[in-house]
Amino acid sequence: MYEWDFSLLWTYKTLLLQGIGYTLLFTAICVVGGLAVGLIAGLGRLSSNKWITAPLRAFVEVFRCTPVLVQLVWFYYALPVLTGIEMSAPMAAGICLSLYGGAFYSEIIRGGIISIDPGQTEAGQAIGMTRFQVMRRIILPQAFKRMVPPLMSQSIMQLKNTSLLSVLAVPDLLYQGQVIAHDTYRPLEVYTFIAVAYFIILLPATMWAKRIEQNHSQVEEA
């Protein structure tokens, strides 16, 4: 019978804490970057100009229809060959995950905006507002309330996707766990701890997102 021994992890507490910190920091960077990309792409896809919408649609479909792991490997190994620009593993991973998240965020933002009654846009323009003013003062405040639940869910997915960074030797939690497992030959304890750590991090975020979604549903019904 296997004898569990989690005490050995205490010896590697510094590596594990660094991995957790790196995972959270990388998640924050990728969420902020993804939201910026998503906002630009989402608003751009509302344009009536095909020269704007066609490339943005292609961008969204490419990133939504290919596995994120393949994207990470391509950005790190293939993109420098094509462009001649060398990138570190964290930089390549950050750009890739920001663009990947941005493709999903853009559809959430676009869907939230088009869900608002077009009559409100017409009413705003009728009283002399510009299209930008209507968007900023009328449409976006209402659409944002509808966007929050799916934006939260996608942000949680961004955190989960950081576990793939280990394939590029980015020192996130999973990568540090792999290093410890190879050093101690105790993979059961190491990977069990990593699974529990992700669960502890994700559970409050998931419950918060669910609560926001429930509150939104109650407001919509009212």
From TrEMBL:
A single BP term in Gene Ontology: amino acid transport
Where does the record say this protein resides? Cell inner membrane; Cell membrane
Q: Which PROSITE patterns does the record associate with it?
A: ABC_TM1 (PS50928)
Q: Which UniProt keywords apply?
A: Amino-acid transport, Cell membrane, Membrane, Transmembrane, Transmembrane helix, Transport
Q: What is this protein called?
A: Glutamate/aspartate import permease protein GltK
Q: What does this protein do?
A: Part of the binding-protein-dependent transport system for glutamine; probably responsible for the translocation of the substrate across the membrane. Part of the ABC transporter complex GltIJKL involved in glutamate and aspartate uptake. Probably responsible for the translocation of the substrate across the membrane.
In its UniProt entry, the species of origin is given as Comamonas testosteroni
One GO CC term on file:
ATP-binding cassette (ABC) transporter complex
